[in-house]
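The instructor's notes for this session suggest beginning with a concrete chain rather than abstract definitions. Hand out the sequence below and ask the class to guess, before any prediction is shown, which regions might be ordered.
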Amino acid sequence: GEVEHRATSDGDGPVALLPYADGADGVGLSAISYTETGAPIPLLYGASDVNEINTGDVYVNVGGDGTGMYAAALGAGSVYMSNEGTVTVHAGGSATGMQGLADSSYGTIEILNSGTVSAISNDNAIGITATDIGDHGTITIDSSGSLEVTSYDSNALGVQGVTIDEYADVTIDVGDADIYGFTGALGVNVVTVGYDSDIDVGFNGYA
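After discussion, reveal the predicted structure:
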């Protein structure tokens, strides 16, 4: 299938339920799981997990900030994202190709890209990013496909993994990547804030 999201400010949009707006933000695919604090443990394993898979084309073109694929497990659960197709983001503000978030203990984020991810913007541009806030969190990012990140006026970053709590693990493998930033460009960035966290990064393509 195909997902297309446009929000422009050329003044030619229809004056209807959804008129075009200057600086509007947009997300192509979004999946969020939210679990209340103190909620009973579900009978089924993985009831709070988020699985987001794209095998087609996702196209986002916005005047503000744009994200191609976004998945979050809040309160409990883990995130699995896979792009086997094409994710393209054009943004007047910042652009992000794929973004995952988990904030509970032992939450994991796994992001796979075997297709093509393009993030092109005037402001900051990021190809793939994951943030794990809970303790004992795990981030795994494997981009064996193509990654194109371009910022015409600011910084460009290919792949990023961020963990906030202790005993976290981050593993990142990147294949082909084309990163261009007007003020700065970086292929892989990993930030671990908590105690006793492990990092493993492999870069097998070009940047």
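Then share the key points. Residues 9-20 have pLDDT under 50 and may be disordered. The radius of gyration is 17 Å.
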